[in-house]
Amino acid sequence: MNVIECRQLSKSYLRKRALHQLTFSIRENTITGVIGRNGAGKTTLLKIIAGFYRPSSGEITVFSERPFNSMKVSQNMIYIDDQITLPTSLSLLDILHMAGRFYPNWDHDLAARMLDYFNLDPLQHLHHLSKGLRSTFLAIVGLAARCPLTIFDEPTTGMDAAIRKDFYRALLKEYLAHPRTILLSSHLLHELDDLLEDVLLIDRGELKLHLPVDELKEYAVAIIGDRELVEWVIANRTVYHRQQSGISRYAAIIRRDEDVLEEARQHGLEIAPVSPEDICVYLTNQTKGRIDDVFDRTES
Amino acid sequence: MILPSDTTKPIYVQLAGWLENEILAGNLLPHERIFSQYQLADMFNINPATAAKGLSLLLEEGLVYKKRGLGMFIAEHAQEAIRKKRREQTLQQLIRDVVAEADNLGVEESELLDMIQRAIARRKDDSHERD
Amino acid sequence: MMYLTEPSLKRVIWNQYLFKMTALPGLFTSLILTQLAAFALSLDGTGGTSIGFDTITVRITHFSGDLIFYFTLMWAYIAGIMLTIRQYRNADFFFVTNRWTQHLSTIALLLTASLYAGIVTPLLGNLLRLVIYWSHPDNVMTAIAPRPGELLLNLLITTWYAALLSCFGYLTGMLAQLNRVFVILIPALIIGSVYVQDSGGILTAAIRFYAGETSILLLSVKAALTLAIVYPFTMLITSSLEVRR
Fold it and tell me: Which chains touch C (3 or more CB pairs under 8 A)?
């Protein structure tokens, strides 16, 4: 059952093309990571799904309805990012009570206990909190609302590593106890790859990949060893990245191919996995050359 | 709980390995219900879909069977089957690797056999000391 | 589908209304402050003349609740604009809403505030009369005691005017959201139309349409109709506004 269906979705502004011909679907009760660089279009996509933005062209349905101006979507969805501002006269407790009025699945006890655990004073006001605590509070609201579609857009901004860990754990426990469809966008894929089921990789407004994390983990391999030998073994394959580290450690990263791997093993070359985060970085590479080139040039 | 960090194998494969170890060690007995994907997800802090994949590996090899609506249960001869599999697959693979590595390093066949016998002897000594 | 909740428009509008009432107390406190300021200013009199001949000089000073009334209208217009700023509108979308329920709950809020103004303003006007009377015990005064039903009349009038002004404020603010051009254009039009000969007629005619009305019933009808046309118009032209920071 697909909660979100997207076909040739595009969004452009006066001069910029934010999203281009995206086609994908999100299954019910899955945790999908929306990954991409800054400005790739992640937030634009998530806000279109949430019904905040209108698509320029193409189709998108959430719960079988067009999300823009849809009461059904708004009722069953919550969108959390790090930019949310609420009227300053409300205390954290006020916000929790308000949320309880709007969201029928709201669990107030859970929210209160989490507030206590993270040392948030319910009588404080949102705009007085530090960035990290703000994110923490908003994340708590997002979880406690138990909306069938829960969207977290960079929810961990400002959170330190310990709190992030707790957040991911809380997310998992909530998901296990009350399954729902979760979209989670983050820069920190390496922290998430056990938590996610699927990954949606966006690059410059286009859909680069949509895969289960397990497949993404085996998408590419690194062949390591003597430079000439490595290059010979990989022959005409597409290379995502090359790197020389150390005297005899030359690595080339290619799409996983059993034939090439067998060949490599037989020649005594080392084979290493490529983390999902790394492969996403290589696939979305847009820099001119490498950072080293900036420094090498100044030397001459 | 944290799975031993073996970055070359996918999580679900490691999970299946851990479950097999539990069966081998006798912690999971035949016809007992094995952990559900949700329990495993909670225990190892992973997505339940990944846990499910690990379980289905065991299912494919006949080490567990499904009872509709009740979950998965350890098969009667699971322990033996795992032992047999490990002996054949794992040990065979290890032997293949050793032979290949010895070849790469230019170690002679006689020297290699010698090293193996010494390792066996050492292990026997260690286990005698413990008893 | 996993336990999808069917939204109830009425419930959402009510909850949004409650949200705004609790989250924006400044709306009402700003009215109090505005009126207190007007009250204080009115203590000196809102007009006066001086007549003199031979050895006698008569100084006449007007006191009225007019200033309070006009300040209230100004507050209403600004309140209407204030509710259209992005920060407040975006906050609604944190909870459950669509553009229609957002408008309707805001309109309900403005009408509530207008009624509140309608109640408080005449009372304050009366208070002013009392204060003036007591602070000038020896001077001749006229028209101190309110005529029967005057309080109720003032309540209705003030409420309608506050509702109208806040409605236009809301329209102004929303137009500005649509296009920044309006931020300059609307004040320019208003101020400009006062000076330019021909179009000066339009604005004054518009004001006279309401202010010149002597029947409270007809005023109510005119005002209600205006609200019934302008608010839906505002809602329609902004139905595609995106939730942007």
Answer: A
